[in-house]
Amino acid sequence: MNEESLSQLYLKDTAFQNLMQKRIFNVLLVASPYDAFMMEEDGRVEEQLYFEYVSLNLSSPPRVTRVATTEEAIAQLEQKRYDLIIMMPGVDVSQTFSGAKDIKKIYADIPIVVLTPFSKEVSRRLSNEDFAGVDYVFSWLGNVDLLLAIIKLLEDKMNADNDINEVGVQMILLVEDSVRFYSSVLPNLYKFLLKQSLIFSTEALNEHEQMLRMRGRPKVMLARDYEEAVELYERFGRNMLGVITDVSFMREGRKDSQAGLKLAAWLRERDPYLPIIVESSEEENSAKVKASGWQFLDKNSKKFPVDLGNAIKRDFGFGDFIIRDPETGNELLTIHDLKDLQRHIFDIPTKSLLYHASYNDISRWLYSRALFPIAEVVKYHRFRNEEEAPLVRQLFFDLIVKYRKMKNRGVVAVFRKDRFDHYSNFARIGQGSLGGKGRGLAFIDSIIKKNPVCDNFNGVTLTIPRTVVICTDLFDEFMEANNLYPIALSDAPDEEILAHFLKGKIPDRLADDLLALFEVVDRPLAVRSSSLLEDSHYQPFAGIYSTYMIPHITDKEVMLRLASDAIKGVYASVFYADSKAYMTATSNVIDQEKMAVIIQEVVGRTAGKYYFPSFSGVGRSLNYYPINDEEPEDGVVEVAIGLGKYIVDGGLSLRFSPRHPDKVLQTSTLDLALRDTQTRMYAIDTEATPAEEFKVDDGFNISRLRVQDVAQTGALRYMVSTYDHMDQVIRDCDEGSGRRVVTFANVLQHKVFPLAELTDFMLTTGQVEMCRPVEIEFAGVIDVKDQNSKGTLYWLQMRPIVERKDIVDENILGLPDSEILLRSNSALGHGNIDNVSAIVYVRPENFSSSNNALIAREIEKINRNFTERNEGYVLIGPGRWGSSDTALGIPVKWPHISSARLIVESSLSNYRIEPSQGTHFFQNLTSFGVGYFTINPASADGFYDVDFLNAQKAEYESEYVRIVRFANSLTIGINGRKGTGVVVKPNQ
Questions:
Q1: pLDDT band with cut points at 50, 70 and 90 for residue 536
Q2: Which residues on neighbouring strands pair with residue 972, listed in sequence order?
Q3: How far apart are CA 909 and CA 936, in angstroms?
Q4: CA-to-CA distance for 507 and 478, rounded, in angstroms?
Q5: Does 676 have pLDDT greater than 90?
Q6: C-alpha 244: how far from its chain's center?
Q7: Which of 164, 179, 276, 899 can pair with 866 through a Cys bridge, CB separation 3.0 to 4.6 Å?
Q8: Any alpha helices (H) in 574-659, and if so which ranges?
Q9: Does residue 87 contact residue 112 with C-beta atoms inside 8 Å?
Q10: Residue 42 — pLDDT band, cuts 50, 70, 90?
C-alpha cells in the first residue's frame, strides 16, 4: 500500500456521534398495578434502569410511564410520543395480544413487547396466540437486566441499516426460538458486550470520546427461525462478527431438529472464517459440531453463561489478542491494545502472523474494539505466503501509525503518562478551561482534520506542533496553595511579583506529568500564555502576557526546573503592571482573569548550536494596506527568518499578499531590498548554560543573530538571496561572497515551497470556519535535502478580527488640506472614531532617535493618565511605534498606548522608516476600532499640519512631547477598503 492509499485512510475515521441515532427514551408499561408492583419489587423500575445504565457507563436511560389497560395506553399515546410499549398479560393472555393488535393498527411504527412470567401454563397459552401485533415476547425472570437487553436489542434493530452497512459496526447473530432461553441469554450477552466495550472505550482520548466510542460496540440481532437468520445474514453478513445458534428451530414452516447445523454449514460456505457457536441441550450434537470445526456449548450446563462469555471472548475477538504457534497452539504473545500491537508487530513470528491474518483474527480483534477503518483495510488485505511477511508487518505498522495520528487530530485528549507518546498531538492536564489560545489551537486542529489536503499540500504537511495545555484549575490551585494573591494584586514592581511566583511550588501531579512529557519531547519548548480573555472575539489580549522559550536538555530534573519557572513566569505576567493597565483599559477585573499555559514543541531544526524555524509569520485575511492589484480581501502575510518573536518585537519582516506572491514591495527595487529587509534573527542557543533565574523580559534567553552569519551554515537556503556588489544585482541563491538578503524569492516566486498557497488556504479556511476575518500565526521548516517532502508548516494560532462596518462620510474624506489636520493614504482601520478631543504628538523639531527610550517612558505616563480618566487621544510620532529597536521607532508596548484611539506614524525628512504592520498591535487595533495612519509628508504621501498644532495652547509640554486639547471632539474617519483616512481641524 503506497502513501496515497494510506492517505485515503484519513477520510474514513468513524463518526461515532452519528451512531445510535435512533434511541428509546420513553417506555409505556401496560400492566395491572399488581404485576407492575411485582416487576418493580416495591421500587421504581425507572430507578433500577437508571442505576443499570450508570454502572455500564451508558447515557440517556429511558423514562417509564405505567398504565393499567389497553384503553389507557391508547389515551396516553394520543398525548405523548413513546418509543416502546411493554405489555404484561393479566389473567386473560388473549386480551393482551388482542390489545397489542389494536395499538399496532394505530401506531404501527412503535415496537410492542410482551413480557410474561414463565410457567408451563403460560407457555401453553402462548402457543395458541396470534403474535401478529407483537414484535417480541420475553419471559420475565425478575431481573432488570432483561429490560436493558430488550431496549438495546430494539435500538440495535432500529439503527442496523445505517450503523452496520454504512459505518461498519459489527453484528452478532443470535438464532434461538425458545422464549425462555433467549430471555436468559440476551441479558448475559449484552452485559458481556457492554462491559467489553467499556474496557476498550478507555483507549479513547477523553471522557467524551469514551462515551461516544461505546456506540461502536457490536450489535445483536435475534432470529427466531431459519429464514429470518438467512435474511439477516444477506443484509448484514459483510459485517458479521460471529453467530450463536440453537440446533432445533423452525425451517420452511416446520420444526427441524437439524436446522442450526444446516444454517451453520450454509454460513460457512459463504464465509469460511466466520466464528460459529452452536448451543444445544442435546449432548449428541456435540460430536457433529466439533467435527465441523464449530464451537459447541451445552445448554444444560449450570455454568452456561460463563461458558458463553468465554467462547465469545475467545472466538469473536474480544479481550486481549493471543498470538499462538499454529503448530502447537501454544501462547507466544499477548497484545493488550492497539498501541501494544504497534509495539510488537515486528516481534510476531512469521508463521503466527500468516495464521492469524489468514483466519481474519487480527481484523476481527480490531472490529470488536470499534477500530473500523483500520480493521477494514486489514481484513481485505490478502496475505498468502510467508515471503510477504516483512511487507505485511510494515503495512500494519504504517496503518496503525496513520490511524493513531488521525484519531489524535482534532481531539483534546486527557494527558495520561502511560499513553502520551510520539503520536500524541494535543492533550490537556487538568479539568479547567484551555484558555483563549488553547481553544484556538484545538479549533485549528479540528479544521486540519476536516481537510485531508493538509496531509500533503503540494508536498508539504500542514499541522500544529505537539501541544499540552495546563488548564486553568491548576492556575487556581497554584495561586491558592502558595498564597500569592496578596502580592499579585498589590502595586509591587513586576520583578518583585515574579520573584514571589518563582518561589512557589507547582502541584506534584503537574511535575510528574511534565517529567513524562520530557520523555517524549526531544525539542526546545515554548511555554505560552492562554488566558480566559486572550484571543476572545471582541477583546483579545494578544501579546500582553509572557511567552518563554526553554532549550531541550537531557537532564530531566533541570528541564523540570526550567519548565516550572517558565510556567510560574507566565502565571506572574497576569499581574504585571502592563497587564493591569490593559485590564483597566478594557474594563475587565484582574481577579476574573484565569491563566492556562500552553507547552508546545518549538518549530525548527538545529543549525550549528542554534535552533530555529526556517521562517515564522503572521497573516491577516483583511489587508488594509493593499498595493497594485491587491484587494483588502486578498489578505496579507508578514514572514521572517527564525523565531516569530522577531516579528512581534517589530523587526523587519517581508510583507506579501498570498494571492500576489510575485509582487513584493520591499524587494521591488535594489535600494528597498537592501534597506527594508531583515538583517537579524532570533534563535535558541542549544549549548547555553540554563538560566538560574527567570526574568520579567521573556526574551532574556533568546539569541539575536546576524542573518549574514547564519546564512554561511546553509540553513537559510531558499529564503535568502545574494547581493552582487560588482553587478549591482540580487541573485536568487545563497552562493557567493556578497551580503545575504532575505527575499524569500525562491519560495514566493520560484515555488520551491508553497507558502503563498498554504497561507491563502489557512486564511480563507479560517475565515470561513470562524465566520469572520482572522489573524493567524505560523512557522515552518523547509526540507532542503529530503526528496520526498518539501517540509512542514505549523499553524500556531488563529484569532478573530472584528471588522467595523461604520459608513464614513465621503465628503469628509474629500475635504481640502486647508481644512484637514491629518490625511493618510495608507490608513489602517475602518469607520468613524468618536469622542476624541486630545492630540499627543512627538515634537518633530526636537526629535532624535537616540531619545526614543525616554520618549517611550514619557508616553507611558501620559497614557496612564488618560486611562485613569477613561479618555482617548490621537497619538502622533515618527518611525515605528512599538519597535524594540530604538533606531527604528519609539519602543512602546501596547499597554503604554492602550488609550490611544488613533495612532499616526509620520516620517521626517531625515528619518524615514518603512511603516510597521507585523506586530500584535494589529489585533488590538482592529478589535478596538483603533485607527492607524502612515504619513510621509516629505514625499507628498499624506498630509500633517504640525504648524497648526504648534500654534495651539499646550495642555502639557516637555522637551519631546506636547498635548493639545480642543473644546469639541475631533472628526476622524477611515475608509479601510480604500486605505484613506482624515482628521478634520476643529471649528475655531
A1: very low
A2: 833, 983
A3: 8
A4: 7
A5: no
A6: 41
A7: 899
A8: 577-585, 645-648
A9: yes
A10: very low
Please give the grid coordinates belonging to residue 599: 507547552
- Which residue in 722, 720, 707 sits closest to 651, CA to CA? 707
Distances (CA, A) of 227 to 29, 63, 520: 31, 35, 56
3-state secondary structure 200-212: HHCCCCCHHHHHH
Instruction: Write out the H or E segment, with its range, that includes residue 671.
Output: helix 670-675
- Residue whose cell numbers read 502541584: 507
Q: Which residues pair with 470 in a beta bridge?
A: 429, 597
Q: How many whole angstroms separate alpha carbon 505 and alpha carbon 510? A: 10
906 DSSP β-pair partners: 935
CA distance 904 to 920: 16
SS3 331: strand
Over the stretch 443-472, which tens digit does the pLDDT of each residue have? 998 899 888 888 889 889 999 998 999 998
Q: How far apart are CA 930 and CA 805, in angstroms?
A: 13
DSSP string, 210-231: HHHHGGGSPEEEEE-BHHHHHH
Q: What angle do CA 539, 545, 550 make, to 5 degrees?
A: 145
**Residues 141 and 118: beta-carbon distance below 8 Å:** yes
Q: pLDDT tens digit string along 614-630?
A: 999 999 898 865 667 88
What is the distance between the alpha carbons of residues 243 and 247, in angstroms, rounded to a whole number? 12
Give the CA count within 13 Å in the CB-facing half-sphere of 907: 20
Cell matching residue 837:
478631543
Measured distance between the N- and C-terminal CA atoms of the chain, rounded to whole angstroms: 80
The identity of residue 983, as a single letter, is: V
Sheet of 729-731: strand order equals: 729-731, 720-724, 740-742
Q: Are 408 and 16 in contact (CB under 8 A)?
A: no
Radius of gyration over every alpha carbon of the chain, rounded to an integer in angstroms:
36
* Distance, CA of 551 to CA of 558 (rounded, Å): 11
